[in-house]
User: What shape does this take?
Amino acid sequence: MATTNGLPTLKIAFEAAAAAVVSRTKKGVAAVMVRDENAQGVYSISSTLFIPSGLGEANKAHIRTAFQGSDRGEPSQVVLVVIATGTSDTTALEAGLKLLEAYSIDYLAGPPDVTEDELDVLNTWVLAQREQYNTVKLVRPYLTAGSDEMGIIELDETGLANKDGPVTAAAYCARLAGIFAGVPVSMSATNVSMSELTAVTPRTMLEQQTAINNGKLIFVHDGLQAYIARAVNSLTTIPDKGNEDWSKIKIVEGMDLIRYYLRNTIRQSYMGRYANTYDNKQLLVAAIQDYFQYLESAGVLNPGQSYAQVDYDRQLEWINTQGVSTTNMSRQEVLEYQTGSWVFIRCGGRLVDAQEDFEVVFNTL
Assistant: This one.
């Protein structure tokens, strides 16, 4: 007889996970790296008041930009990584990233004077973290070739300026990390304004469109304020089983949050707690379906398109690897076959995009 011990706990855990995704409003975490001779280490700070006093004034000002956010929200925390000075090699940066592995972050910006070699290290580190289902995305300057990764956002701006003078793209990435971390999962960063900028890279409308299509994050200036033209990441090569909207920062943020909470909830509330029977697999399926329905009702996932089920194809493949003939097995027999410690679940849904493109027709009477 199937056990149902712990079912309420599992259901509550998934409800909490769904609520965590929905309540992502103004609760993201940005990570910022700086070089300084003093106060080296990692600091999780919730306010500019807690910026280490021993840092240089330029570094303090740089860190404050990550807290600014936008009219759509501010980050809940900034994880500050202070590394040793010097850029002759990547040793200091690598040491800082090692320390950062103990923290859960959403967006990362390297030092304002980041080198090309360090950008390569940052790319590699972020992609490795994402392979482990961590939610970190890198915000970096665009150089000569795009990264073509949905976890890497590349700012292509060479004409930035504020009231104090020119601003490099690398130095502005901390500001962007804070903006992205503060945007709710129900919104996008497209058209977020940055009033402190007095100039951006001049582009024609065609050049703007081309840059965006090539996975570059760019700004536009309407004569009054600068705006993010379109909140895109560097992905331009869409995977065979992927969608074009994976190139949007909002969509990837939603995907990351759902995967993160889904994985962690299973690990914390299911793994090792249940006998691996078909009925208990269906218990997990039902809990995931409830999780998705909550997200659908909250406008995170598109209604009616979410699903969860025991993965028939993976079950069949696993049985065959055990040397068992499946020729005469019915579909239900395959689904109910005892699979050792393995649980194969297939699930998915479609994230709801933000309103970014409009067509309004005005007819005169």
